[in-house]
Amino acid sequence: MLINRTVAPAIAELTTDLSIAPEVQITPSGARLHIFENNIQPVVRVEFVFKAGKWFQSKPGVASLTAKMLKEGTQFHTAKEIADMVDYYGASLEVNHGFDRSTVTLYCLSKFLPFLLPLTFEIILQPSFPENEFALMKQRIIQTLSVDKQKNSYLATEAFTVAVYGQDHPYASSISEEEITALTIQDLMDFHRAAYTLSNSEIFITGDINKAGIEAISTNLKGAPSAEIINPTFKANSPHTGLLVNKTANQMQASIRVGNSTIRPTHSEYPALYLTNHILGGYFGSRLMKNIREDKGFTYGIYSSLSHKEHDSLFFIGTDIKGDKIKETLEEVSKEINLLMQEEVSEEEFLTAKKHLNGKFLSDHATLFDKMDKYRSNILLGLSPDFYSQLLQSIQALSPKDLIDAARKHLQEETLLKVVTGGSPE
Q: Residue 2, Cα to own-chain centre: how many angstroms?
């Protein structure tokens, strides 16, 4: 059969079903297993998620240092022995911390899971927190912090989050060298004992996992001591609006942050705000990119986003610009936001943005691990497991007028905080 190459192939309809339905098992210890089994590839990922992020720490920096120290030695293995064992099996064992949670993640070939699970549980339950490694870790963090505090981009984000939440709020990106120096091994041990409790964990298992593998994980959970995690409460600052300017030695470049605390994904108007944000600055073809990057040449990139944590959400615009273009950039940002409040988006731009989001959502759910990542995020944020399918369907039903309403309700100029760091004096 000859192919007529002068005729483009038909474009298939994009699916709106992005959800997965892992099996959920509640273990006797209280931990929940979320199991998404698929044996297409002989690879498995096991993620242990704990309430051990900044939200739960008693002192600044303790959540971060505790997570970083878990792989620096256990009661039975040194850091080098841990690294050598993981490398020997061609695996990956990572510990990551965030604002709300900390995660210990094991990737490996499924046939090696029985050999690596004991080491993973050892890291979680029996870290040794060696003094010499702790001293070196603090030194490295202080050196990195010293470098970061010379960067306008770091200082802008720090100033923005402190203004939104308050200096001592866990969602503020602020820490000092003195706070790192003051931490002790005992601080880390106390935090580890309280936060890294298997009975309160969420465990996400993805890939080629069999009944024996699940049983091996469940067996290690048996007898895990239950512990009550105290969920602290923090009061954010009263809404801080207007312009904050911080001068630095770097006058060639300026960093700008604009935004405010905004609605949660469960809000009925969230789909309209999501699409409005996408058109404003959510992708390379957005209005902010076309105006401030392509037309004006003030920056290499500018973006806007909706960022969600377990206890708050932010609307956020960020860019690094030429140091002498601060006033012009802020004016153009305001202009683009005001246009969204006043004029309906053209049909062409409206459809382009929706099609781009269709592709983005599919790309974000392309692999087994991608799908589990989205599922995990939904679970931890208290959303429906099929949240993204529902969101995509809601976006398809929107009209241009819905975007005007969303912009008028949630992007009003008087509600926005604007932070400028660096740049040349006016």
A: 49
Q: What is the CB neighbour count within 10 angstroms for residue 322?
A: 17
Cα(348)–Cα(358) distance, rounded to whole angstroms?
15
- Superfamily for the 23-221 domain: Metalloenzyme, LuxS/M16 peptidase-like (3.30.830.10)
**Burial of 220: CB neighbours in 10 Å, binned 0-12, 13-18, 19+:** middle
Mind listing the pLDDT tens digit for each residue in 67-83?
Answer: 999 999 999 999 999 99
Q: Which sign, positive or negative, has the C-alpha torsion 193, 198, 204, 206? A: positive
The predicted-structure confidence for 376-395, as pLDDT tens digits, reads as follows 999 999 999 999 999 999 99
- For residue 242 the two structure tokens come to 């207007």
In terms of pTM, does the model score above 0.70?
yes
Any idea of the CA torsion for 109, 32, 369, 102, to the nearest 10 degrees?
-90
The side-by-side arrangement of strands in the sheet containing 92-97 is 23-26, 32-37, 202-207, 43-50, 102-109, 92-97
Classified as helix, coil or strand, 348 is: helix
Give the residue among 51, 19, 57 at the shortest CA–CA distance from 310: 51
Residues of the chain with pLDDT > 90: what percent?
Answer: 80
Burial class, 195, CB count within 10 angstroms (exposed 0-12 / middle 13-18 / buried 19+): buried
Per-residue model confidence as pLDDT tens digits over 116-155: 999 999 999 999 999 999 999 999 999 999 999 999 999 9
Structure tokens belonging to residue 384: 């429906």
Do the domains 242-422 and 23-221 match in fold? yes
Which candidate, 265, 280, 344, 359, places its Cα nearest to that of 312?
Answer: 265
Sign of the alpha-carbon dihedral angle for 242, 247, 252, 254? negative
Topology at the third CATH level for domain 242-422: Cytochrome Bc1 Complex; Chain A, domain 1 (3.30.830)
Domain ranges in the chain are: 23-221, 242-422
* Type and span of the H or E element at 404: helix 400-410
Q: How far apart are the first and last CA of the chain?
A: 70
- What does the alpha-carbon distance between residue 411 and residue 363 come to, in Å, rounded to a whole number? 28
Residue with tokens 């079903």: 17
CB atoms within 10 A of CB 410: 20
Confidence at residue 264, expressed as pLDDT on a 0 to 100 scale: 96
Cα(77)–Cα(127) distance, integer angstroms: 9
